[in-house]
Design brief:
The protein is α/β, with parallel strands linked by helices and 580 residues long. It has 16 helices and 14 strands. The chain has helices spanning 7-15, 18-28, 38-53, 129-137, 181-193, 243-262, 285-293, 295-301, 326-340, 378-387, 411-430, 438-456, 463-483, 490-512, 535-540, 546-579, and strands at residues 57-77, 80-82, 85-86, 98-104, 120-124, 142-146, 176-179, 199-220, 225-235, 269-276, 302-307, 323-324, 347-348, 364-365. The protein is globular and about 80 Å long. It starts with 6 loop residues before the first helix and ends with a helix. This is M28 family peptidase.
Length: 580
């Protein structure tokens, strides 16, 4: 049931202006904002000007980012030309292009039956890194994706942020183009009706390399613990005019700053706004660079990361499935439910949307807040796979297209979304105890460990890890009960917050990071406790074989990491409960 917020929060959400939000959006999205371009820089400078006028401390800096900009693509079949686009991080063919036999495939049918070696693959759906990787490994020499009624811009590399000598090796080496359903139907018809192999020629040009990209940081200082901060971030770079993605979200960030400063809200801890480049064309190059170069500050002082993307779309009526961590679900969901009346179920973060801070152990909340209801069209079905909702079907048919213009925003939806962000941000910056539910985090880990135990089929014993996570859940519940007390001293608040942050620093990398906490996993979704995701390899290995013993060794070492990590979290929780 929708309820009215009262007091400070009620005052703040009433101050949110649809007119100002739309004006901010128009100013940000009046030019195409390719990463590292002059047009993008003007949008950054505009955001800085607004934040300066609000009295925030701002810093616009520049760094090297590995950026990939699609330039041009051609596709010809039997002398007939087809309109198409190419994609970020796809390879360029050169003037000679690439030609060969066309073959239609269905990746969902049976990947093992792919017969694409030395052929060009035609398939339905939006161009994704996973599909490109499968085709490349299968020996295809090119890929043609049938998107739907309109082509969607995409980045087809899994490499997160700037490449390293190792990750550079896995950048795509395949030329990739996308066509609409209209062109795709003609291509499929040619395949069905031709008595001879259908020959295709395509040419792609993608400008990929290092260029300077901006980052804008703006701080609104807290008064009690100014060194601690809530990070509120979003990207400014865009595909085409990007009015929804990400002009509406940028406007929301600016409006939150305006509302907080004009109402003279006294923050306990600081608010740090971060505007990234390199999101769309560099696979989160901006946020990754910021993490790499501010790792200790983020680890020691950032209490929560709130992200804003693609807000205020027309028809965006689904708000209850926004991304969250289980430990932030109750906090964020409370405001969604109060302000919209919609039950908040939330969904686990996928590996996307500038979520570059998991290695730092920082709790995260939201990515895109509002989504479209599911549809039956090809584009919607593909977007559902990308976004993973039950009721929600992504950000709209215009997402990542030339049609993402100002008319795709609903001023009232944008105001609604901004009001939720305003309430969330103001509360997170002013409440005494940071809003993290460690019992919920332990429950998610417990469910994952129980599932892995079942997968292991007795070949490795997870009982100690399960015992420890059960104990951690009990401690988390006790922490939650203590937090409900109102008579906290300043010293007690400080010590409890430090403990909650320390537990997050321990548990979030365990739950979300497969590799090194100081590195960045590839852009591929991970299950909970991803270091154990290979458990089926042990279960399926024939006992007594080399593979059996090798996988048993691997999984035991990884299980040691899990057990020891849980032990450290238990010790931290027990220590603070004893102290307070």
């Amino acid at each position: 049931m929708k309820t009215e917020l009262t007091g400070m929060e009620g005052k703040l959400i009433e101050a949110v202006s649809a007119e100002k939000l739309m004006n901010f959006t128009k100013q940000v999205s009046k030019e195409v904002r390719l990463s590292g371009s002059e047009e993008e820089l003007r949008a950054f400078q505009y955001a800085k000007q607004v934040l300066d006028s609000c009295g925030l401390e701002t810093n616009l800096s520049f760094h090297d980012g590995f950026i990939s900009l699609p330039i041009h693509a051609e596709l010809h079949v039997d002398g007939e030309s087809f309109t198409c686009i190419t994609h970020s991080m796809a390879t360029s063919t050169g003037e000679e292009g690439v030609g060969g036999e066309l073959v239609f495939i269905d990746l969902e049918a049976d990947e093992s039956l792919l017969n694409v070696e030395n052929r060009l693959a035609l398939l339905e759906g939006i161009a994704t890194p996973g599909a490109v990787e499968i085709l490349e490994n299968a020996g295809a020499i090119g890929a043609i994706f049938i998107n739907g009624p309109i082509t969607h811009e995409m980045i087809v590399s899994r490499v997160w942020g700037n490449p390293t000598p190792e990750t550079k090796k896995i950048l795509p080496k395949l030329p990739v183009v996308s066509v609409t359903t209209k062109e795709g139907d003609v291509l499929k018809q040619k395949l069905n009706e031709s008595e001879r192999p259908v020959s295709v020629w395509m040419k792609t040009e993608v400008d990929t390399g290092w260029r300077k990209i901006p980052t804008l940081i703006a701080d609104l200082k807290g008064e009690v613990e100014p060194e601690k901060f809530v990070l509120f971030s979003g990207h400014i770079d865009s595909w085409h005019y990007g009015a929804m993605d990400n002009g509406g979200a940028n406007a929301t960030m600016l409006e939150v700053a305006r509302v907080l400063t004009e109402n003279d809200i006294k923050l306990r801890r600081s608010l740090r706004l971060a505007f990234w480049s390199g999101h769309s064309h560099g696979r989160y190059a901006g946020s990754t660079y910021y993490c790499d170069n501010n790792w200790e500050d983020l680890y020691e002082n950032c209490v929560l990361h709130v992200y804003a993307d693609s807000l205020g779309g027309k028809g965006a009526t689904i708000l209850g499935e926004s991304n969250c961590m289980v430990e932030t679900k109750d906090f964020g969901g409370e405001f969604v439910e109060k302000l919209t009346g919609e039950a908040f179920t939330g969904k686990r973060f996928g590996r996307g949307g500038d979520q570059s801070l998991w290695g730092n152990g920082i709790p995260a909340l939201f990515m895109g807040l509002s989504e479209q209801p599911k549809g039956d069209d090809l584009a919607s079905r593909t977007l559902v796979k990308l976004f993973g909702g039950n009721k929600s079907g992504g950000f709209g048919w215009w997402w990542h297209t030339t049609e993402d213009t100002i008319d795709k925003l609903d001023p009232e939806n944008l105001k609604r979304d901004c009001q939720i962000y305003t309430a969330v941000i103001s509360d997170a910056c002013t409440r005494q105890i940071i809003p993290v539910n460690q019992a919920a985090a332990a429950r998610e880990l417990k469910a994952a460990l129980e599932a892995y135990q079942e997968q292991a089929e007795g070949r490795i014993d997870l009982s100690l890890a399960i015992q420890r996570v059960i104990r951690l859940e009990q401690l988390g519940e006790e922490l939650n009960n203590r937090i409900k007390l109102c008579n906290w001293t300043n010293d007690g608040v400080k010590r409890l917050n430090e403990a909650l942050m320390n537990i997050s620093r321990i548990l979030i990398p365990l739950n979300y990071v497969n590799g090194d906490s100081y590195d960045h996993d590839l852009a591929m979704n991970q299950p909970a406790i991803p270091v154990l995701k290979d458990m089926p390899n042990l279960a399926n290995a024939t006992e007594g074989t080399d593979g059996y013993y090798e996988w048993k060794t691997v999984m035991k070492r990884r299980l040691n990491r899990v057990e020891h990590t849980l032990k450290k979290a238990i010790q931290e929780a027990e220590s603070i409960l004893t102290a307070i």
